[in-house]
Specification:
binds magnesium ion; binds adenosine-5'-diphosphate; alpha/beta; three-stranded antiparallel sheet; Rossmann fold
């Protein structure tokens, strides 16, 4: 390896190299490669079923890959799951699983298993709870909270130990506009401290707003990768399509099917009108 390559690898918090995961004949992740650098928010943007959650679970060592390699913070997630847990914060796609606990009990539990130092963590936790308007349900059962409020608790739980890498699977689902702003600020602070983020979403505006660089994923493959400016250039190169939304739909083979669905929907609804 040359010195330049070594430098490049040191900067990479995440290296995903020709990763493949099948579920029987479904190729959920079909030969994807990408890197995430220190201080970078990398977005995986793709429609439902594209393979985002599978890619995330492979990165966390929760699933075993069929082929390919993953290096996270210099380690192999399948072999170093325990060490990586202390350095990664994970926001899963499903709302919190600790339903029979209150947020307060959950945070006490997390602080004890992560051996987080009392006072410093208490101060940070109080600030996060206040910023996300979460104090009022701090002692209510998680099972009784709304989806968005569960999500806020999950986000706080993922960042409380100041991980180097945040892996977030559709983290803004169910959040109101104010909380989205606060979470964006939290990510900004995380990046300023030299952290990195993998951010999965199916919503283009969110990826554009939050991510420094994105990989557009469809049917298990990354079909385009770059900054939004770079993807805009791709848009300009495409015949007749200029809008990024159109490019996204086109790259993910959805443009024709959307037109078709809309036209069928209109004709069915119109024919039933007044009957
Ligand atoms: N445990 C599983 N068993 C079988 N198929 C799965 C499993 N998990 C995901 N898949 C399939 O893999 C594909 C990618 O799914 P997923 O990674 O959840 O996509 P996304 O998160 O982008 O919506 C889908 O076709 C999905 O049905
Ligand atoms: Mg998913």
């Amino acid at each position: 390896m040359s010195n330049a390559e070594k430098m490049e690898n040191m900067e990479n918090m995440v290296v995903v190299d020709h990763l493949v995961k099948h579920f029987d004949e479904v190729k959920a992740v079909d030969d994807i490669s990408f890197n995430i650098k220190k201080g970078e928010i990398f977005g995986l943007l793709g429609p439902n079923g594209a393979g985002k959650t599978t890619a995330v679970k492979l990165m966390l060592g929760l699933l075993e890959a069929n082929q390919g390699n993953i290096t996270i913070l210099g380690l192999d997630p399948e072999k170093n799951e325990v060490e990586l847990k202390t350095r990664i914060g994970y926001v899963s796609e499903e709302p919190l699983i600790y339903k029979s606990l209150t947020p307060k009990e959950l945070f006490n539990f997390i602080a004890s298993i992560r051996r987080l130092d009392g006072e410093k963590v208490t101060g940070k936790l109080a600030q996060y709870l206040e910023s996300l308007d979460a104090i009022e349900y701090y002692e209510r059962l998680i099972s009784t909270l709304s989806r968005g409020n569960k999500q806020k608790i999950q986000i706080i739980a993922a960042i409380l130990h100041d991980p180097d890498l945040l892996i977030m699977d559709e983290p803004l689902a169910g959040l109101d506009a104010k909380s989205v702003k606060v979470v964006k600020e939290i990510l900004e602070l995380h990046i300023e401290r030299g952290g990195s983020v993998l951010f999965s979403t199916h919503i283009m505006e969110i990826a554009e707003d939050i991510c420094d660089r994105i990989g557009i994923i469809n049917k298990g493959k990354i079909v385009a990768m770059g900054t939004f400016e770079e993807l805009r250039l791709v848009a300009k190169d495409m015949d007749g399509v200029m809008d990024l939304e159109d490019v996204f739909l086109k790259l993910t083979d959805q443009d024709e099917s959307v037109k078709d669905i809309i036209s069928k929907l209109r004709s069915t609804m119109n024919s039933h009108r007044g009957s």
